[in-house]
Amino acid sequence: MPNDQELLTARLEDHRKLAQKRPCFLGFLDESQAVFCQDYLSKRKDVAYLFWGGHENAERVMLGFFPDYLEPAPELFPITPFALSYRKEDKLTHRDFLGSFMALGIERSVIGDILVGEGECVAFLREEMGEYFLQNIRKIGRVGVKTSLSWEGTLPGVREFVEMSGVVASERLDCLTAFACRTSREKAAGLIAAGIVSVNHRETLSVSQRVKEGDLLSVRRQGRFIIDQLGPLTSKGRLVVKCRKYQ
Length: 247
Known about the structure:
Blueprint: H1 4-18, E1 24-29, H2 31-41, E2 48-52, E3 61-66, E4 79-85, H3 94-102, E5 111-116, E6 120-126, H4 130-136, E7 139-140, E8 143-144, E9 146-148, E10 161-168, H5 173-181, H6 185-193, E11 197-199, E12 202-203, E13 216-219, E14 223-233, E15 239-246
Antiparallel strand pairs: 1-3, 2-3, 4-6, 4-9, 5-6, 7-8, 10-15, 11-12, 11-13, 13-14, 14-15
Helix pairs in contact: 1-2, 5-6
């Protein structure tokens, strides 16, 4: 049976061909799928494309393919916000919303980011699913909600981080992984060899890969870390590092 990447490659090729005549859209994609698509399409110059998730800095995005006569633009994407409001006293989580949405019997790929705040949530959906959600979502768990297909103002759910700082021997991946996970370089090397560490959503097995400022380091079951600063060197020749861990 074909694996996930082979299936995604086949869908990419289908959409590239369709885009010769009309715009077409793939996704929503998660971050690793989007990186795979970006790498695949960067080697092909015969199609115009754009990633967009309904808002700036979206984690889950749709991939749009466009014919020669049409300039790629966010407003062309078939994405609608699905807004929910409820009592602030009812503490709902991302998992609560996703669970209720998936209980509708839909595929995960029709839902983009789910942004949760106090008493409010905005989820981004494929446009054709908007009315279906509007008609079928009355509660999240046991909590009653009011819903609409519009949103104005600041989006809820601003991501929070924990700041971390320290020193490492170098900018090698094993050093940064050890620092981020508060473990030894030997154990960090084991995590990398096990294939559970990625840089900018790309899995890497090289302990000596160089990490740069701005890179996103992900360690399965440990968390995700944005590397903000590497340097300067201390008087003992070690490298100052500052990063933020996703909450």
